[in-house]
Specification:
Elements (H helix, E strand, L loop, with lengths): L3 H5 L7 H15 L7 H17 L2 H10 L13 H10 L17 E7 L1 H6 L1 E12 L15 E2 L8 E8 L2 E8 L8 E2 L12 E12 L8 E4 L15 E7 L6 E3 L2 E9 H6 L1 E7 L2 E7 L8 E4 L15 E8 L6 H13 L14 H9 L2
Parallel strand pairs: 1-9, 11-15
Antiparallel strand pairs: 2-7, 3-6, 4-5, 8-9, 10-11, 12-13, 14-15
Helix pairs in contact: 2-3
Amino acid sequence: MADHYEVLGVSRDATPDEIKKAYRRLARELHPDVNPGAEASERFKEVTHAYDVLSDPRQREQYDLGGGQGGFGGQGFGGFGDIFETFFGAGQQTRGPRSRRERGQDALIRVEVGLDEVIFGTHRDLEVDTAVVCETCHGSCCQPGTSPITCDICHGTGSIQRSVRSLLGNVMTSSPCGTCRGYGTVIATPCATCQGQGRVRARRTVPVDIPAGVDTGVRLQMPGSGEAGPAGGPNGDLYLEIKVRTHDVFSRNGDDLLATLEVAMTDAILGTTATIPALDGDVEVELKAGTQSGEILTVKDRGVTKLRGSGRGDLRIGVQVVTPTKLSGKERALVEQLAAARKPHKPELSHFQQGLFAKLRDRFLG
């Protein structure tokens, strides 16, 4: 690789002002608008890169040291911080340059499902705004047809070695290269679509199979469905946090479904058969004669499919006998005839009983 000083046509002890003047002169001569052509374009990039390095005091110093021109580089005596860095921190960068490819971040989205979808599970196609691999450079970060070039400061190692004079003698310290940021390569022509990141923000569709039996608060992990990593790195994971909507009729207790069935007083007295529209089809239940409020009718295996394991919970139906509040004259006469025909029952105190909903709750929940 050409020497930066030679590229700009200045001596190694040139002042910053001399370097700036040399760059401006060459930039005017080689600018693509003035001097079109591939050769001039490449020369312009080379001149610009040389100026970027030599116009920065720190990068220029590193360049001079990396080129074997600096000796001690005017560092003088290193402090105790350099000594401790040498023995406890140095060497960590000598294992080679770090990779631009990194794992993408995990993502979390919340999904709301209905109680009826929870019974057997459901499928969703979710629209997610996330980072995806750049379709222009396919994660290389470079403009198509180009590739990263070896850093001429660290010569591809990703770190700069310095000889420092200390109380213990001459020691070597290592620090990340400031020019390539420890990558060992420089992207001279970044991809215009992703600005050299290798990924862009976009909306994509993620197909999701939500298993049966999930409940509010459950998190599902989808490995590799999160954000794409920089420079074509592997995707992170996608987490789905489930929320089950409240149903107007049915509620849930574990894997069981709970509901209340209101029955007429006459049906409770005489008994009847009722058809109930459950979440997954009609269910027929039988009320025996003399059914009381608070009794529980259990329909086996008509609850929620178990998330872990096999089988389903039960459908548990609490009975509420509805006493009419308004009677026609004929209805009242019939009830009076029934009362007269039955053995008189004098109202009397008995053990305190909870209200219907409290009794149902206790029986539902065991």
